[in-house]
Amino acid sequence: MNYYIKDATLVNEGQTFVASVFVSDGKIAKIVKDGEVGPSTSSGTLAPSTKVIDATGKYLIPGIIDEHVHFREPGLTHKADIYTESRAAVAGGVTSFMDMPNTVPQTTTQELLQQKFDLAAEKSLANYSFYLGATNDNLDEIVKTDPKRVCGIKLFMGSSTGNMLVDKNEVLVRLFRESPCLIAAHCEDEQTIHENTVCCKDLASKGEVILDASIHPFIRTTEACYKSSFKAVDMAEKFGARLHVLHISTQKELSLFRNDISLKDKKITAETCPHYLWFDNSNYEEKSFAIKCNPAIKSHRDKEALLQALREGVIDTIGTDHAPHLRDEKFTGDYFTSKSGFPSIQHSFELMAHVLQKDLPLLVQLMCHNPAILYQIDRRGFIREGYYADLVLVDMDEGQMISDKNEYSKCGWSPYDGIQTHSRITHTFVNGNLVFEKGIFHEEERGARLCFNR
Ligand SMILES: [Zn+2]
After folding, report:
1. Torsion sign over Cα 388, 60, 396, 398
2. How many angstroms separate the first and last alpha carbons of the chain?
3. How far is the CA of 244 from the centre of ligand 1 (A)?
4. Which of 2, 15, 124, 375 could cross-link with 120 by S-S, CB 3.0 to 4.6 Å?
5. Res. 347 pLDDT band, cuts 50 70 90
6. How far is residue 75's CA from residue 112's CA, in Å, rounded to a whole number?
7. Which of 148, 27, 130, 117 shows the shortest CA–CA distance to 446?
8. Which residues fall within 8 angstroms of residue 334, CB to CB, at 6 or more apart?
9. Is the pLDDT of residue 424 over 70?
10. Distance 188 CA to ligand 1 centre (A)
11. β-strands 268-272, 317-318: how paired?
């Protein structure tokens, strides 16, 4: 099916203008600016099979590229799977995702990585790529990674997730020297976290603190983040690695990144996530373990500084860190047993549109253009003729109430339940296929594997 998206307001590359977009064979075939003569059915230049979508009053943006998700497949599919979460993704205007390796089994070999690509080819409604996980003993697998076909290597830098903690210095040095593609790092210092845990348990035993959700930023502290991020940046500079530090949550870490060079020339980049821009430590009382995540959500001052860093180009991208757990895994039990992470991919656009005060050019830059530039993704992330037709129509006048009842993620709940948004995604195209249309999914086609121009 070909589409003619008529009279939309395009938001692309810093500009906002009325135009119509002709989608043919999965690509953006033509952009016709307001006033120019475009193809039409009456003149015979538009094939009769072309479906016209009247987009008057709506905004057309490039599909969102979410560089940081946990879709839990294989092995943890009671929480989420590639089909259910890619559905939530396209409902949220996300047309491409990059999934993390802390599944069961962990994605630490080329063979296991290929198995994930095979699963996605069968099940994903959005375009996809997968990270290979680094361990203390899989360098031989890492160096085999094809940078044109795989988004990156995930490094848990000083933070343990199963056996994916890389804590041997000689391994880190070789990884930073020899990785054939981008290293995406989770930076929190395990030793600091351990010491804080011991200290808080001791205080709790004396009745001086209560181990509820609000203790989280006192265990997973600013210092834990800074110490680990500092080390990662230091090593990347020493050994010439391409480093992307994930989910920055503190003001202090911002000093490690720069904005005096263009993104395409940066070798060290940074991401933050919607929840660090939406919540702060004043929300623990109401939300409790719903907003427990790693790194922890920190202070109001951190939140404001992160927002400023996005505006100034110190932080380059927004990734969701969409990490579903079942309600039971979050809310039964105590601080130590409650799982960290929560779903968010379905609402990232609306939440960020609100946080950025409807500054759509900035939102598009942070969530569409910059991930495409940073990962050097082939022909996506922009509305350009010849690019893949990953496109999203947005109504900026009509919001909706976020509700657990409307959650497409398998876990069926959201930490944003009860929040009124002021925009909504109406149409999502993936490779020119209309996969989401006003609450209805068209699931005939599957997304494609992302390719990288490296
Ligand atoms: Zn994550």
Report:
1. negative
2. 32
3. 13
4. 124
5. very high
6. 12
7. 117
8. 211
9. yes
10. 12
11. parallel
